[in-house]
Automatic annotation (TrEMBL):
Domain PTS EIIA type-2 intervals: 478-626
Main localization (coarse): membrane
RCK C-terminal domain sequence ranges: 617-701
Protein name from the UniProt record: L-asparagine transporter
Compartmental location: Membrane
Transmembrane regions listed in the UniProt entry: 12-31, 43-64, 85-113, 119-138, 150-171, 191-209, 230-252, 280-302, 323-346, 352-374, 395-428
GO biological process: potassium ion transport
InterPro entries the UniProt entry points to: AA-permease/SLC12A_dom, APC_superfamily, PTrfase/Anion_transptr, PTS_EIIA_type-2_dom, RCK_C, RCK_C_sf
Lipid bilayer topology: Multi-pass membrane protein
Classification of source organism: Bacteria, Pseudomonadati, Bacteroidota, Bacteroidia, Marinilabiliales
GO cellular component, one term: membrane
Length: 702
């Protein structure tokens, strides 16, 4: 059976490399001279302005990616926020835009190679495409391994270029400083309007920043690595663009600069005079080829995830959702490769990037709107680990910026965008509509559209929360350790049990018993995700409590629980009840803890194994992460013998572990620093996996 799940193997530097590698190509090596025609020497400021203009889209994508780390990027976000029609349009448009940009970048490899070697441009481009295809088929990690090499080499060369250039401009007599340099006069050749037009023209240089969203499903710890990787990438890239283009303006005469298609190579010849012969030109050509290669490779990697994600959602044929033995979407990669080869063979390079960027700007408009939709929908399981600052003003600004820049792209680009929208509408109407039965989060926003709400979106988002796991600081392990366990040996009914448990919570938390009973019985939109045979999970949120509490009830005979659905009443026999109460100020923490609990419950033979345990300690250990706890029995003649007779505070454990439970003569209790350990005590120690492994090697390894 073919797999349909991607491997999580990309770390922070992979995120940085994909994002940075997708930006450095035409923006630095081809566009600066052409862009200077619109605004003159102030072109380096236009790059800075353009970097600021993409901030709203970057923040919005970072927020949604940490809430919904799924392959497909913009497609998945738009589909789940605005519905499958907009998702289809956005998915197809972004897919083609990324492929066009990738084809353009790969052609750049052949173009720079042709400067120094007598080789056909398109032949080199086709060979490079097939090479990148092979890398992507072997896995995202191998693909990003090459990506990291490209980006590292590029950063070294461009860093050297900037340091040498700034030294020559400000600390030597070789090049005049800006106020004495005629290259900087007049600074704005077309005033403020020229600067804004140029910012729109070079906006394409930053569009690769958001490519990382399309591989979000393959990123480890996405709530940290996605926003941090994107922010670091924008800072580094913006600084390199700003300083690099400033140096080009300083060393290249304005008239020559405006017509130079390789301004970086021209500038390095004037700066790197300490290198023999054409070494400097070869070095910059190598950097340019690395830049184009990184963009092409990152483009194939990210764009191939669009047919994969759309196939998984039935908007594309299902074959594209299949994952091969190496954990990559083989058919999606092959289809993307075919399209890129087709573009290389039949299209000219002129205008490709501009056409692609126009549709991307429209996608940015919808993505900024999507953040507003998700926030306003009040879907409980929308749980971003990173939230965009200055909401909603940041999103409104991003929407306005996108529309303004699209206008400056010209009528040909707008016609292209219209054609893609029409293609998306037709594809959805004649292929996808009959296969898809869901709506976006926007129907949860407007009460008037309430009858069209798609209940499955809550379940899907809950499954994503479960995959992401607990967030740092979520007290799941501590809640398990503190939990109360009741073995129901006498026959009882559900109402009696509910009142009994609610009464215990009421006494411990100083909350009203009747309110707890009512909230435990209240229906929730996430309940379908919690239905498991012979198990019942009831939950509530209360003000005035400072930590979650859990009560577990185990019944060998089972307790009959009434169930009502769609007006039909039935009964289930429940053997294990979980009652969870969380502080109301942390509603999404409760969702994460419920998701983790479901993850544990879904183990094979969970009910039979829980019923077999008669020790509270063993039950609690069974519910904990295996790698996050260790059990030690204090026996003479063992490594742990030294602990016998000592108080806990006298024993030096790693700083991030805690002796959570002590079992003594069949009784389990939570110890404190003054607890004196005795022979045959059984300790349950919880902590970070690294420290638990350290304790295992010290006390238990044979």
């Amino acid at each position: 059976m073919a797999k349909s799940k991607l491997k999580k193997e990309l770390g922070l530097y992979d995120v940085f490399s994909i994002s940075t590698g997708a930006m450095f190509s035409s923006g630095f090596f081809l566009l600066p001279g052409l862009a200077s025609q619109y605004t003159g020497p102030s072109v380096f400021l236009a790059y800075l302005v353009s970097g600021l203009l993409i901030l709203p889209a970057m923040f919005s994508i970072a927020e949604i990616s940490t809430a919904l780390p799924r392959s497909g990027g913009a497609y998945f976000f738009l589909d789940r926020s605005l519905g499958p029609l907009i998702g289809t349009i956005g998915g197809l448009g972004t897919y083609f835009a990324l492929m066009l940009k990738s084809a353009f970048a790969i052609i750049g490899i052949g173009a720079y190679a042709a400067i120094f070697w007598d080789v056909p441009i398109k032949t080199i481009a086709i060979m490079a495409t097939l090479f990148f295809m092979a890398l992507n088929l072997f896995g995202a990690k191998k693909s990003t391994g090459l990506q990291k090499f490209f980006v590292t080499f590029l950063m070294v060369v461009l860093g050297t270029f900037i340091i040498d250039g700034l030294y020559n401009v400000f600390l030597s007599d070789k090049i005049d400083i800006p106020r004495s340099n005629d290259h900087f006069r007049p600074f704005f050749t077309n005033g403020f309007e020229g600067l804004i037009v140029t910012a729109g023209f070079v906006f394409v240089s930053y569009l690769g920043l958001t490519k990382i969203a399309s591989v979000a499903e393959e990123i480890k710890n996405p709530e940290r690595n996605i926003p941090l990787g994107m922010i670091l990438s924008l800072l580094v890239t913006g600084l390199v663009y700003f300083l690099g283009v400033f140096i080009m303006v300083s060393v290249i005469p304005p008239d020559d600069f405006a017509n130079d298609l390789a301004p970086a190579a021209t500038a390095v010849k004037k700066l790197f005079t300490w290198m023999p012969g054409n070494t400097a030109a070869y070095l910059m050509a190598g950097a340019a080829m690395a830049a184009f290669a990184s963009t092409g490779n990152a483009g194939l990697l990210s764009s191939s995830r669009y047919p994969y994600a759309m196939g998984r959602d039935k908007l594309f044929p299902p074959m594209f959702s299949k994952v091969g033995k190496t954990g990559t979407p083989v058919h999606a990669i092959l289809l993307t490769t075919v399209f890129i080869l087709l573009f290389i063979l039949v299209l000219s390079e002129e205008g490709i990037a501009k056409l692609a960027s126009t549709f991307q700007l429209l996608i940015f408009f919808f993505i900024n709107f999507s953040v507003i939709v998700f926030r306003k929908s009040n879907i409980e399981s929308y749980d971003p680990g990173y939230k965009t600052p200055f909401y909603p003003y940041m999103q409104i600004a991003g929407m306005v910026i996108s529309l303004v820049l699209v206008v400056y792209m010209g009528w040909m680009a707008i016609l292209f965008t219209s054609a893609i929208i029409l293609a998306g509408v037709l594809w959805y109407k004649y292929y996808a509509r009959v296969r898809v039965q869901r709506e976006g989060a926007i129907f949860h926003w407007f009460a008037l559209l309430g009858k069209y709400q798609y209940a499955g979106i809550e379940n899907e988002f809950m499954s994503i929360i479960k995959e992401k796991g607990l967030r740092k600081g979520d007290p799941f392990d501590e809640t398990i350790i503190r939990s109360r366990i009741t073995f129901s040996e006498n026959k009882t009914d559900f109402d009696h049990l509910l009142n009994y448990v609610s009464g215990i919570f009421s006494a411990e938390m100083h909350v009203t018993k009747s309110e707890l009973v009512s909230e435990f019985l209240q229906a929730s939109s996430i309940e379908p995700a919690l239905i498991i045979p012979e198990i019942s999970i009831l939950f509530a949120k209360k003000k005035g409590i400072d930590h979650p509490s859990l009560h577990i009830v185990i019944s060998d005979e089972g307790i009959v629980k009434p169930v009502s659905k769609n007006g039909i009443t039935s009964e289930d026999t429940i053997r294990i009840f979980f009652f969870l109460v969380n502080p109301s100020k942390e509603p999404r923490q409760q969702l994460r803890m419920l998701s983790r609990l479901v993850d544990v419950i879904e183990r094979d033979n969970f009910v039979s194994e829980m019923l077999a345990f008669k020790s509270q300690r063993k039950i609690k250990e069974y519910l904990l992460h295996n790698e996050r706890y260790i059990t030690l029995q204090l026996l003479p003649g063992t490594e742990q013998e030294d602990m016998i007779g000592k108080q806990l505070k006298e024993i030096k454990y790693p700083s991030d572990v805690l002796v959570a439970l002590v079992e003594r003569n069949g009784t389990t209790f939570a110890p404190n620093g003054n607890t004196r350990l005795l022979k045959n005590d059984v300790l349950t120690i919880i902590g970070e996996p690294k420290s638990i492994t350290q304790l295992y090697n010290l006390y238990m390894k044979v």
